[in-house]
Amino acid sequence: AISVMNQWPGVKLRVTEGWDEDGHHSEESLHYEGRAVDITTSDRDRSKYGMLARLAVEAGFDWVYYESKAHIHCSVKAENSVAAKSGGCFPGSAWVNLEGGGTKLVKDLRPGDRVLAADVHGQLFYSKFLAFLDREDPPVHKLFYVIETQTPQTRLLLTAAHLLFVAPPHNHSHSQPQPIFASHVQPGQHIYVLAQGGQTLLQAAVHSVSLKEESSGAYAPLTAQGTILINRVLA
């Protein structure tokens, strides 16, 4: 809380949920053990959430990630949790688009690098890379979900607990990208990928979802915006 006030004078830390007494989370949720909190800033300014996540990491939380665009989830790991088992990461072979052109492997990112991201409306812009929320260098083995599209052709590997943005159903009034866990993505759903020319995002149908084990490391990059395009896919 002090770090938040020091970072943004006049702004306070806001805890939206701690202990869950109503059964709103999955059976393995750490909210039932008093090990997790969901936080925002008091002004609910989402542009601050990237830095808020970094402050949470520096405060000593084992696991910090964007559980939804509305808040940051912070927890102390328990060995039986999904996050502890898989994390929310990409393999060392994943790459990003850099400002000024070119690409870079996620594992080689350095604080201050500006990478392609998108806001809640799907508008592209470059956001500053802040830190790795989690980093495990090779030869660590991880099980990744492989999400593939055909038109255009993309292939993204990410762990079960990482969020991926999908398009809402056509009959849904909500038009903004919706974050869901990679483990919940199904063929036929539409994800957001970078169009040819790199100027806009377009919706691409998921063709297949499979599992693959890799030993190229696991990396969870954090940007100031909170989103990032990995292998041309919005995550």
Automatic annotation (TrEMBL):
GO MF annotations, alphabetized: calcium ion binding; patched binding; peptidase activity; transferase activity
UniProt KW keywords: Autocatalytic cleavage, Calcium, Cell membrane, Developmental protein, Endoplasmic reticulum, Golgi apparatus, Hydrolase, Lipoprotein, Membrane, Metal-binding, Palmitate, Protease, Signal, Transferase, Zinc
GO cellular component terms listed in the entry, alphabetical order: endoplasmic reticulum membrane; extracellular space; Golgi membrane; plasma membrane
KW Lipid metabolism (keyword) present: no
This protein's record includes keyword Cell membrane: yes
A Pfam family the protein falls into: HH_signal
Domain Hint stretches: 87-195
Domain of life: Eukaryota
Location(s), subcellular: Cell membrane; Endoplasmic reticulum membrane; Golgi apparatus membrane
Bilayer disposition of the protein: Lipid-anchor
Coiled-coil ranges per UniProt: none
GO biological process: one example: tissue development
InterPro entries to which the protein is assigned, alphabetical: Hedgehog, Hedgehog_Hint, Hedgehog_Signaling, Hedgehog_signalling_dom, Hint_dom_N, Hint_dom_sf, Zn_M74/Hedgehog-like
Family listed: Belongs to the hedgehog family.
Quaternary structure and interacting proteins, as annotated: Multimer.
Protein name: Sonic hedgehog
Organism of derivation: Causus rhombeatus (Rhombic night adder)
Gene name as annotated: SHH
